[in-house]
Write a structure and sequence with these properties.
Two copies of one chain form a homodimer. The first copy, chain A, has two domains: about 160 residues, Alpha/beta knot; about 70 residues, Orthogonal Bundle (Helicase, Ruva Protein, domain 3). Helix content of chain A is about 45%, strand content about 10%. A seven-stranded parallel beta sheet of chain A has the order 3-2-1-6-4-7-5. In chain A, helix 1 runs parallel beside helix 7, helix 5 crosses helix 7 and helix 8 packs parallel to helix 10.
Chain lengths: ~260, ~260
């Protein structure tokens, strides 16, 4: 996975109301490798202590946040600005989803362009006049029966798409699991199990034995056991069959006793 | 876009701490068409008024939320449970991203299976013993330098992927924009503009005119104007050239006056 490029998209919040949401936005930015946050006329001024409290340690976007007096000022150095909105507008602008937009962001950043994502305030979203300053509208494929999306979650979904557009894979600290056991190891386990089952009288009636074995092998095979797991399971079979032996011995002793 | 199926995945929060987060989870569920919420031992009991306050009107998942005493109880009727975690485990379980998982959810739901997504509490996430009750681990491709993901945002990204796996398109209330104007209408506009530019002495030196015209047409063509926009722009050209006429008349009058 690529490290966060210095040119990752800029997040612009126009007239954000709640400092908690600004902090939650910073946290989501840090989760997905973005750092450049711009605040246009935050309602309660800036800085706001509650933003840091709700960022859960993602302080760097907040510490470096730039406060602007207008959307025009906030986008002055950006070559492409995407307006994110859940409300259709009468403007003739392309309307795309975050997934499609993220492909464009990656391409534009690859060409050295600076990209901005513009979000409106919690209550009313973006003014159409601000959308008109953008080149594209981005809208999340939301259930139209409940379109009230939390500001920080809207940012999170967009910056998540930015990151996934670079690589959709578990983080590198998730190491791939052990490989499945070889056919030989598996067959050894199956045969061990089947011997013990044969001894215990499991296969009944005898003419059905081949089918029962096949179905058992298919069921167990779906789990794709690793070598370690095959060793463990052979131990399980041994323990169960020896245990049965002990029970039988115990019963035999009881029978023999007066 | 498909309406929310009754079998959309179930969201299970194990030991959630903050009622605000439970409300934010309900809101994200409503945004993406999910309704079935289960709470395993919510720290502060249930119901909690603050959950409703932070759901911004997405009350139905909260009203119907089922409180369970254990993860085992919460998943008892589910055929597939996905453990969402940002922390690698020693368990031999497949580890996939929400995007890959969403494809499986859609397929499983299509077969009539009930699917659950299990999330841990805010502070410590899921216990490995609870992950072991699941069939698959889902992890978001996060920046490993800042892995502290907000609970409601983790839910939002997963349920967003559930919805997008069904259709990645703007909601139906976003109507497609008007079609681009025809070549004839565009050419009419270009020629109108070029006549007025010719009159105003814009094309200089004259031998460069064909190139200047070509470059201007290419630049304007990229905007893919609609018919309405072409009409507006012809009005713009007319206004500018008439305005220029008026300025010239004014200058002429001034010159003539004593």
């Amino acid at each position: 996975m690529a490290e966060a490029a210095p040119l990752a998209p800029v997040i612009i919040l126009n007239a954000p109301q709640l400092a908690e949401n600004i902090g939650a936005v910073a946290r989501a930015m840090a989760n997905f490798g973005l750092t450049d946050l711009r605040l246009v006329n935050p309602r309660d001024g800036w800085p706001q202590e509650r933003a840091w409290a709700s960022a859960s340690g993602a302080e760097w976007p907040l510490n470096a946040a730039k406060v602007c007096g207008s959307v025009a000022e906030a986008i002055a150095d950006l070559q492409r600005v995407y307006a994110t909105t859940a409300r259709p507008r009468e403007l003739q602008l392309p309307v795309i989803t975050p997934r499609a937009a993220a492909v464009e962001w990656v391409e534009a950043v690859g060409r050295g362009e600076r990209v901005g994502l513009l979000f409106g305030g919690e209550r009313a979203g973006l003014e159409t006049a601000d959308v008109a300053l953008c080149q594209t509208v981005v809208t999340i494929p939301i259930d139209t029966r409940f379109r009230s999306l939390n500001l920080a979650q809207a940012v999170a979904i967009n910056v998540y798409e930015w990151r996934v557009a670079q690589a959709d894979a578990p983080p590198p600290n998730f190491r791939p699991g052990a490989a499945p056991a070889s056919g030989e190891a598996l067959l050894g386990f199956y045969e061990h199990l089947e011997r013990e089952l044969e001894t215990s009288g499991f296969f009944h009636p005898p003419e059905k034995t081949p089918n029962m074995i096949q179905n058992l092998r298919a069921a167990l095979g779906r789990a794709r056991f690793t070598d370690q797991e095959v060793r463990t399971l052979r131990g399980v079979v041994t323990a169960l069959s020896r245990g049965r032996g002990k029970v039988l011995e115990k019963l035999a002793r009881k029978k023999d006793s007066p």
